[in-house]
Amino acid sequence: MSKEAKRPTRKGWPNHPIEFKRRLAQQACEGGVLVSRLTLEHGINAILLFKWRRYIVPDEVIAAIRRASVRLVSRESTTWKK
Fold this sequence. Notes:
The protein is mainly alpha-helical.
């Protein structure tokens, strides 16, 4: 990581530039991308990336991703056998 990507604040926590946050948030929304792998590659916490994604990526995009990833199951296939 470059020195520009992590600038310490008063408390010693990294202060990532908004461009870095936007890029990772958009990558986290792409299909086939594992958030855990993305966070390990960039040395950040997954909860932090989810927070960035929630604030940076529009709600409509996240809703579309969730709809696309939900697999609908018919009622007949969920009946319980005794």
